[in-house]
């Protein structure tokens, strides 16, 4: 049985663990064996705590044997994103400046997941300071796509997505500013949710009012993703934007009748984010699936005027706040594209920030109006398919040259500005065998409705069941 444990759904594993059909130690060992076999080809997990994981698994098994009540993630192994602090375990942020950094505290997300029973395996790879949607850095190198190791796994949660797809872990945490959960999920044929800001509270410190970057869950299925969200979400008095809904609200069956759902489809976000033809060739036939499920599908999109400038302004400002001091003291240690973005933040004026804030407020009100007429918005997750892993970013999108490393990410980051939940669900493959994701976008705080719609689509299509051909196992 242990040969197949690494590809079982997390919900299935959790149920078997509770019934004592398998032990936590068996589950952890199966994933450690898989990591040894496959990780060298994908470079997804960059720090491993095998001894600690096996010890934690033994404790979990003993707890269950004593008849103690066990939490929802009991016995499930997870490697945490290498931007999330892990007490006593190296957290590098993908930067040479922090190559040997060992925190003395856990991030909020890490703490919540371990309290929910998850077992720490190690850390997953990230771009330097999570900047960009291609996972490479000078500390650990490049994470590669399990479906084609010559291609990018996306980012910034690229190590997390590749580890999921390759069977190295059943669940993964991440974060998303401009698509860092959704883009790698799309590239690696797994599921990634950018929750409503405040659904999962961030680590205290920095800008506690920030709604652009949010922590969130990934899984191989929508149900697995909802299970992880249930352990991540919930109020936190230290976070002024934290939502009061308890995480347990997402630990429910996702089955829902979609008949009569009003669905909008936009292939390019109203012209703001043109996608490559091979992306649209996969996605456009998926509309028929939604229609067969009883949805009414129209071509429509919210007015996104000003969203691009707003995102870039707020992003540059956030990088200046977080990394400006490093630009002064260790500029050569920052990758050039990151240094340039910090510099852009420094050049911003008060008028720039006021304009961005006002535009975002207008976009929010327009989004509310749009979702009074539609229940769901569908769009590409990424404008391109997984690209050459040796490039920093694609050199063109839809036949047009890219000018910056952000240009190909608009289909994800324009949605970030709206403050809404957005879910990437596997939608099929190109003729070359490269995964493509479909983005399910809902009204603010409608995270459960988005998960339910994605779950129904997933069950109707089963695209996520196609595994990569690594290590002789699918």
TrEMBL record:
It comes from the Bacteria. NCBIfam families: PRK07486.1 (NF005686). This is Amidase. It comes from Streptomyces lydicus. Residues 26-451 form the Amidase domain. GO terms for molecular function: catalytic activity. Pfam families: Amidase. Coiled coil: none annotated. PROSITE patterns: AMIDASES.
